[in-house]
């Protein structure tokens, strides 16, 4: 049995084109993903998942965490910042300080854009407690259409980005065979008290809070489609009982680059050994 995901047949030709030099791998875009966590009084540790709309060009129908590409303005040094510095994040993710700043800012921005959860507050030791009114929604839409940068959004509200609410978790790079590729750092974060994650993403058609084990089992039954980074992350999280245990974990971050290989005439996206 192949430990991987069977892909459409056209990937055979793409692999052949790469092998004989007729095609070159796409350059991956830097991206950030945030695994939002909460402790449910009955269910225990839960994770927030979005299902990508069928109309999306990349991974339609897949269950994912909030996240997306770095915006060129995410590295704005004017952003009010509390918590570990870009240098610290760079060391955690093997990135230079500029990219590390961009990744943290992208993580905060994309999480707000896709769930209305905002990892920022009026001071370096506080956090906004509710983002569900029309004023917040107006700001979210402005971030989405890029008429407002994250720095401008935070500055207008007198808010400080809370990098201390995030923890580094993993690093995944889209396989060489994919025409659209991402170099993604994964973060984990607890949803701030008083805030609620909502189904606001234009890229998703369904959201859910699930126990990691339930999500993994649903994926193995074929009820939820997930790419390797999502499934591997959820599999890792099955070892934890609550949010505090996840956030206290000291992770060694190394990049994972899944391989696509033809096996018995069919292309498969193989799960890196030890991840699933």
What does this structure look like?
With 276 residues, the protein is of the alpha+beta class. The chain has a single domain (4-270), classed as Nucleoside Triphosphate Pyrophosphohydrolase. The protein contains eight helices and 14 strands. The strands form three sheets. Strands 2, 3, 4, 5, 9, 10, 11 and 12 form an eight-stranded mixed sheet that branches. A three-stranded antiparallel sheet has the order 1-14-13. The protein has a three-stranded mixed sheet with strand order 6-8-7, with no helix packed on it. A hairpin with a 3-residue loop joins strand 2 and strand 3. Helix 2 crosses helix 3 (97-115) and helix 6 packs across helix 7. It is globular.
What gyration radius follows from the Cα positions, in whole Å? Answer: 19 Å
The name of the CATH architecture is Alpha-Beta Complex
Name the CATH superfamily assignment: Nucleoside Triphosphate Pyrophosphohydrolase
CATH domain topology = Nucleoside Triphosphate Pyrophosphohydrolase
Number of helices: 8
Helix content: 25-40%
**Beta-strand segment tally:** 14
Top-tier CATH class: Alpha Beta
Average predicted confidence as pLDDT:
91
Percent strand: 25-35%
**Structural domain tally:** 1
The largest β sheet comes out as: 8 strands, mixed
Secondary-structure element series: EHEEEEEHHEHHEEEEHHHEEE
